């Protein structure tokens, strides 16, 4: 395959990271470029993949590429572990992909109150290391995903009802700015940037690590309860009761309907983070039937154990994506959503290897209140807006020949759901960033005031708009300077 990068750019790249640069055609390049979560990202082919292993190498890379990014001769993608499923989020056709998986390190402070985590880590490695110190953090529910994109998108944790979004536990970011400077962002040093990075994605620079507040680790009671599909309407009623009336902030739940291998089922993933077995707050779910008891996994374990369980629910390299909307809880609306999801399922379930899930993830009032107390974030959801449900739709299939019709059917489904919710006055502006679809205007969903503040932060720290123009992947701020 021809090299599409011009000679001055190639020389600039090799002048700083020759030993860390993979070229098309090499076996290492093929392995790195086929290791994304979704097949769509695997199908893009950059000209080079650069794999720095230290923040200093990232600064050298940005310094070397900056002139070419300014002229438009170069465009880059920034990859953590590559879990966002749409193609261009963390890979780029004919450009340069900066693969950060080599940035490793988990360092617990002497007083054990904070931990610094390099962006090349996964939550599995974080939880594994922290449990050696009897600690944990408000990280992802799925062990296999990377830390960087999850935090920069906000993130939901099993501890979210008590602590807010995962990003609300971040006390400091280290970031390479467009100037090539390695900067810190915390509540006292670059505080506006600290706020913006909590949900602001890859719009301000390349984050190399972040610090999070730690928690004492301990036994957690939870797992997955499976129900026959006819239980789903009752599950919706109990989920609404939970978000409106439950005051136990040590609970976390996710309710879903799913199709796979010719069968349907309903599930409730639930946890009590203080380890109370069958806690009163969860009995509305554990008492619901009919259950598929032989599949239930309720038990006592740790955050690592439960995150490893959820990691088994997905497989890398599939044709798959997420799309999402946010609504105010309403049983009749959610039942109408379920009926419309069933209609879409009937249209596309004959696709080879088709799996289809449809779930509700609560944003409780206590979550939003805790988020505000922690200093707020770029998503800027007022506590008074709660409770809310993040609606997640996730299709998976095997054949490229089914791409067009599945994408069209699911996009139509989401459009219809948004119209149904808007008609009842129950659609919320926010789209959960980590589950966003490639066509979503995520930043607009943060609200006008937050969007303006993010633009002003971008102008201050990236006045030339390099991380919009030169890094096109992901959910972007406008490249127009204020």
Automatic annotation (TrEMBL):
Transmembrane segments: none annotated. Keywords: FAD, Flavoprotein, Oxidoreductase. The keyword Oxidoreductase applies. Pfam families: FAD_binding_4. Residues 42-217 form the FAD-binding PCMH-type domain. One of its GO terms (molecular function) is oxidoreductase activity. It comes from the Eukaryota. SUPFAM superfamilies: FAD-binding/transporter-associated domain-like. Belongs to the oxygen-dependent FAD-linked oxidoreductase family. This is FAD-binding PCMH-type domain-containing protein. It comes from Apiospora kogelbergensis. The lineage of its organism: Eukaryota, Fungi, Dikarya, Ascomycota, Pezizomycotina.
